[in-house]
Amino acid sequence: MATDTDGWMKMPHSGMTADEAADFISRRTPVTAEAGEVSEAEASDFAIVDPKGRRIAWGTRGQADAIDLSDAYPEILEPGYRVEWLCPILAARRVQPKHTANCCECGRIVDTREAKDGGDGFGSELDDGRWTCSGECWEKAVGIEQDAPSPDVAGLIEAAFDTAQAAREGIVGEPQSGQSIAVWFSCGAASAVAAKETIRRYGNLCTIHVVNNPVAEEDADNRRFLRDVEQWLGVEIEIAVNDAYPDASAMTVWDRRGGMSFPHGAPCTISLKKEARQQWEARNPVDWHVLGFGAEERGRYERFILTERANTLPILIDAGLTRQDCYEIIVAEGLEPPRVYAQGYPNANCIGCVKATSPTYWNHVRQQHPEVFEQRAEQSRRLGAKLVRVDNQRIFLDELSPLAVGKPLKSLKMPECGLFCEEPGAPTLKEPADAH
């Protein structure tokens, strides 16, 4: 077998480079370490060691059990070569270093601190005290199966990777005559102005769709704002709803999925936003997308086109319009912003967003919308979801003291509700600039 750099040999089908394999094995230790406290039966992986003590190949215990190692690695029959059985470092030591745990599925070491303190942003503690290192391992641990994408949606995902590669190579250009553009309107000021500017720039050149993903748990006034924006734009805003959730209700999604906020994202975002958008795209192929990236978000936009949708036009960035500018434009044009802004919420997303963990936010919901707070408290208790964090500990909403506070609400950076629905809080309104 051919060897990679530094004497590493890739395990068949592992998909890892030499450096990745070295990093992986660095998280393992021989089962004989620490006075043999771990037996060979507890090994999770193996390595082939050459006469110089280098691990030149590796694999999992399951792979070793499925093959004859001497057939796959005839080197081990030669003098000096041997099989080394491995296990996660922490399992071997039996002593958990501070702020660390093993993933109960793959054995990877997880830093259990808060992400802001350097912890693993994808780590998650289960109710029984075990930890997982990723969304994939979390789903395996709790027995959740993801629905496979339909063939048409799978094609869209493949196309997204193709266009992302094109962006990296500098291929993506400008809209051409006869092409189509989808503007994703989130019931916020920035996406409303982005739609207006897109129509101004490309309305005589392209077919333009303005599309909204509704969620039943948003404030009802969002629908009023949508109708006002329709009149302002002079176009009908199309509605994209997941066929599997015709009521577009996050509460329905949570009950059906058996959870409210997973380590890799909230299921409501995936089902009501991303999957609804993918279904709409499958029926309405478009050449370009527009989102409400403000002029101050150029870095975020550039990351987005490299990882998600390369064919996304920087409408507001090109126009030099910030989100503050967009808010002022909306007011200057005589449109009343969604009332949730006046109620002190930092964005126009759902009331009682389950990705929020701040006690300040949840007590604000309790004060402004007590019926929503009670709904979230009942459902989260029933589903075992501890949505709020107090003194660095997750607790149930019905355990939250009305006096508990965290960061001031205006300083909170609320979690994004997916790629096509986030909308940050309206900034303090200034006098509209003459240019707007």
Summarize the structure in words:
- This protein has three domains: 5-142, no CATH class; 151-342, HUPs (Rossmann fold, 3-Layer(aba) Sandwich), CATH 3.40.50.620; 359-411, no CATH class.
- The chain has 17 helices and 15 strands.
- It has helices spanning 18-25, 33-36, 61-66, 69-72, 89-93, 135-142, 151-168, 189-202, 221-233, 250-257, 267-283, 298-307, 315-319, 323-332, 339-342, 359-368, 370-383, and strands at residues 28-30, 45-49, 55-60, 82-88, 100-102, 109-111, 124-125, 131-132, 180-184, 207-212, 238-239, 288-290, 312-313, 388-390, 393-395.
- With 436 residues, it is of the alpha/beta class.
- Helix 8 (189-202) packs across helix 14 and helix 16 crosses helix 17 (370-383).
Please give the CATH class of the largest domain. Answer: Alpha Beta
- Given helix and strand content, the structural type is alpha/beta
Number of helices: 17
* Shape by Cα distribution: globular
User: End-to-end distance, in Å?
Assistant: 67 Å
Main pleated sheet: 5 strands, parallel
CATH architecture descriptor of the largest domain: 3-Layer(aba) Sandwich
Give the overall pLDDT as a whole number: 76
Q: Please list the strands of the largest sheet in the order they lie side by side.
A: 11-10-9-12-13
Strand content: 5-15%
How large is the radius of gyration? Answer: 26 Å
Quick recap:
The chain is of the alpha/beta class and 436 residues long.
Fill in the keyword field for this structure.
5-stranded parallel sheet; 3 domains; 17 helices; 15 strands; Rossmann fold; 4-stranded antiparallel sheet; 436 residues
